[in-house]
Write a structure and sequence with these properties.
Blueprint lengths: L16 E2 L5 E2 L3 E3 L15 H12 L4 E3 L3 E2 L11 E2 L6 H12 L4 E7 L14 E2 L16 E2 L2 H20 L4 E6 L4 H6 L14 H4 L1 H14 L4 E7 L10 H13 L4 E5 L14 H4 L6 H8 L6 E4 L5 H9 L5 E4 L1 H5 L3 H6 L16 H20 L10 H18 L2
Parallel strand pairs: 3-4, 3-14, 4-7, 5-6, 5-7, 7-10, 8-9, 10-11, 11-12, 12-13, 13-14
Antiparallel strand pairs: 1-2
């Protein structure tokens, strides 16, 4: 790994960075993944996605990471996610990538399978490592069916196929989503993975699926494309993935040639990634900084920290000290597409607007996602973001649309 000290801006955030694969990021600011829900009813990218990401690339971010791109059309996180399992949508994906490259940015595709948290199809039983349902009273979580050996191996092939197609479409690489309670995160967690075969039962077996996918993807996309992984620092649940086990997973990922590890945390039951975490963590400027500092003592793999980052001086400090190599921001980009320009000039991200809440963390976390998705639609249409108003106005802004999208998703 080599690092360029040629300043693009006077701040550490403005220095370029060469990833191990050879791809150079123009600065250390990353637009982290958010679920845009801007695909069409069949799972193809749309011009809305092109225009949204072009705005972010024009705003100066060094790297853009897409929201969920499904590896299997039989399981969607939300309606209007995009899907990439064959070549039918390659032209649309190519236009998406070109929209970013036209402004000098880099883009990687986040590929994912929801596992037991799949929203669609509504009438189909979801799958997971074990038949363990979410512990979310009142959320209507369905009990998943434990995957067979053949189904597990099929998903290795599906992640690999999606990665190959992503680079064929012009993306600079992929990010494998192994955080936030989705399928690969479910395999990593002792709470959701209670298998007793070679895919569970101990740390090594629980991380086997992730490692085999990473190994297969690296071999398939070659050494010169970005291979990133998003990993929980912990699940923030008693008995879930611990920080010590997460460090061991990170070291295994480093050995497989991972170019960039994004550190996050939490899941549907404990959404720490959205700030709904114990006070000792949520009060920090960066939710998972303690884990990043601990992990850096064990590995030299490029690290990216996401979650709660707002203060430009703090970001510059952790880059300068080498705690992490890049910083990821998500929700602030929904209110200020040119946020990277401000950060490079030393101006912190604006205070996040207050999103209406009902007091139940899983519901409030979803309100956050839906509220920001409404901003994406405005940005993609060339309109400035705006506050949606109170609880009822917010519900009306996305509730009917969500119902229609669910009913018409193919």
């Amino acid at each position: 790994m080599t690092q360029s000290n040629t300043p693009i801006d006077s701040s550490p955030l403005g220095t370029s960075y060469n990833l191990p694969c050879g791809v150079t990021l123009r600065n250390r600011i990353v637009k982290s993944a958010m679920s845009e829900q801007l695909g069409d009813r069949y799972g193809s990218p749309t011009t809305d996605l092109e225009q949204l990401y072009a705005a972010w690339a024009k705003g100066g971010a060094g790297l853009l990471i897409t929201g969920n791109v499904m590896v299997d059309r039989r399981a969607f996180v939300e309606p209007r996610n995009t899907v990439l399992e064959d070549e039918r949508f390659i032209p649309a994906y190519r236009r998406w990538a070109e929209a970013i490259h036209g402004h000098g940015g880099k883009i990687i595709m986040q590929i994912n399978h929801p596992g037991r948290v799949a929203v669609l199809p509504l009438l189909k039983r979801p799958v997971g490592p074990s038949a363990v349902p979410l512990q979310l009273p009142g959320m209507g979580a369905r009990k998943p069916r434990a995957m067979t050996e053949a189904e597990i191996k099929e998903q290795i092939n599906r992640f690999t196929t999606s990665a190959i197609l992503a680079v064929q479409a012009g993306f600079d690489g992929v990010q494998i989503h192994a955080a936030h309670g989705y399928l690969l995160s479910q395999f990593l967690s002792p709470l959701s993975n209670i298998r007793t075969d070679s895919w569970g039962g101990n740390e090594e077996n629980r991380r086997r699926l992730l490692i085999e996918i990473v190994r297969s993807v690296r071999q398939s996309i070659g050494p010169d494309k970005i291979l990133s992984v998003k990993l929980n620092s912990s699940d923030f649940q008693k008995g879930g993935l611990s920080q010590s086990e997460s460090i061991n997973i990170a070291l295994a990922l480093e050995a497989e040639g991972t170019d960039l590890l994004e550190i996050s945390g939490g899941n549907y039951e404990s959404p720490a990634q959205l700030g709904f975490a114990p006070d000792s963590h949520a009060a920090n400027d960066a939710y998972f900084i303690d884990f990043a500092e601990q992990l850096r003592q064990h590995c030299r793999m490029p690290l990216m920290l996401t979650g709660g980052l707002r203060n430009a001086a703090f970001m510059n400090e952790i880059i300068k000290k080498g705690v992490v190599d890049a910083v990821g921001l998500a929700r602030p980009f929904a209110m200020k597409p040119d946020l990277a320009t401000d950060l490079l000039a030393g101006r912190s991200a604006p205070e996040s607007p207050r999103v209406p809440a009902v007091g139940y963390k899983p519901v409030d976390a979803y309100m956050q996602l839906a509220w920001h998705a409404a901003q994406f639609r405005r940005i993609s249409a060339g309109l400035p973001p705006k506050h949606l108003g109170g609880l009822m106005k917010t519900l009306l802004a996305f509730g009917p649309r969500m119902g229609c999208n669910i009913a018409t998703q193919r």
